[in-house]
Write a structure and sequence with these properties.
By secondary structure, this protein is mainly alpha-helical. Helix content is 57%, strand content 6%. The protein has two domains: 284 residues, Fido-like domain (Fic-like fold, Orthogonal Bundle), CATH 1.10.3290; 66 residues, Orthogonal Bundle (Arc Repressor Mutant, subunit A), CATH 1.10.10.
Length: 370
């Protein structure tokens, strides 16, 4: 029978050695300064675009980790509605997108506030306000005598990966967790010096209790963002969930290992590396937006309406580029123009060095030259 961290005599007194994490913690501090320096060079519109892109990544990936695949258009519309960027509200078909955006906005808006049971339950209500699961207890700690287990099926049998504390102990556990979170905040009695370390412990501690019937992963990651934002002094822009999704197996392996002991040096080492990865992904986003701005500064006077439409469509794909590259056939579909016109436009873009070309003949493809 497995013995979990909460079953040990030293629970919840986590202990750790930061010697193997010091270089990463230093890199996080350096990366924070680098990102702040680059953000200064973004226009107000570009900063808004960066904010929207990061929220999109977080909403998509925090949901994907839990097996929910949300529509990108619904997420984008939910964000733009929340920011009031349109006179009329944009339609949102999948209300789950609207729910996760409500949560992410509230996490950022209220990051300075102390954590309370009421706030956590309010987040749960936001997350599941349009849930079709009428048996789900929303906005309250889990109840019942059945154990809360994380399981998977393999070769026809169920494998238990983790079992959380009994529901009857959750209220007491959460009082202790909330008290710990508030006392370890910047300037408080038991302040944890490194925001990344506090975020790592926050996530593990919360996931170990698993206080809700559903949504613990998403709210646990939101709590890590709150811890980081309190440490940095402003709402973080990067997406932890995007970094997790890059190697989800490593996340589950680290979390599973950490659930067996209250000596969590390896977990902290993993999580602070995750934060650094998230920061580097943000830097890529900023670099992309800076390059995009420079691209338009250089070429906007040379582009006709068709070319501009195609370029804007290609840029919608973000830092990963337009999948498969642009072809004459795709150009014709986007602009509703003839093959001759599409070919002429693409040759013009190539001549002015706005695009690069790969392949030849029917296989020729174009990518933006950022």
């Amino acid at each position: 029978m497995s013995i979990y961290n909460w079953q040990k005599a030293d629970w919840p007194h986590f202990h750790y050695d930061l010697s193997q994490s010091q270089d990463t913690l230093l890199a996080i501090a350096e990366q924070t300064g680098l990102i702040q320096g680059k953000l200064v060079h973004l226009s107000e519109d570009a900063q808004t675009e960066t904010y929207i892109n990061i929220l999109i990544e977080e909403a998509l990936n925090t949901s994907k980790i839990e097996g929910e695949y949300l529509n990108l258009s619904d997420i984008r519309s939910s964000i733009r509605n929340k920011l009031g960027l349109h006179k009329a509200r944009l339609p949102v078909q999948d209300k789950r997108a609207q729910d996760i955006i409500e949560l992410l906005f509230d996490v950022r808006k209220t990051f300075k506030q102390k954590l309370t049971e009421e706030k956590l339950c309010a987040w749960h209500l936001m997350l599941f306000s349009h849930s079709q699961n009428f048996n789900l207890k929303i906005g309250a700690w889990r109840q019942g005598k059945e154990p809360m287990q994380i399981v998977s099926s393999h070769s026809g049998r169920w494998i238990v990966h983790y079992e959380a504390p009994p529901a009857k102990t959750v209220p007491k556990e959460m009082i202790a967790f909330i008290d710990w979170f508030n006392k370890t905040a910047p300037g408080q009695a038991k302040e944890i010096k490194f925001a990344a370390v506090r975020a790592a412990i926050t996530h593990l501690y919360f996931e170990s209790i698993h206080p809700f019937e559903d949504g613990n992963g998403r709210i646990g990651r939101a709590l890590s963002e709150k811890a980081l934002s309190q440490g940095f002094g402003y709402p973080i822009l990067f997406s932890l969930s995007q970094a997790i999704e890059l190697d989800k197996n490593a996340y589950y392996t680290a979390l599973h290992a950490a659930s067996k002991s209250n000596e969590i040096s390896e977990w902290i080492k993993y999580f602070v590396t995750l934060i650094l990865t998230a920061q580097k992904e943000l830097e890529k986003q900023i670099n992309f937006i800076l390059k995009k701005s420079a691209f338009f500064d250089r070429y906007h006077k040379d582009l006709n309406a068709r070319e501009l439409k195609v370029i804007e469509r290609m840029l919608k794909e973000g830092i990963n580029g337009f999948e498969g590259g642009m072809s004459a056939k795709k150009y014709m579909a986007i602009t509703a123009t003839s093959k001759a016109t599409a070919t002429r436009d693409l040759q013009h873009l190539l001549t002015i060095a706005a695009v690069t070309q790969t392949g030849s003949g029917p296989s020729v493809r174009y990518q933006l030259n950022l």
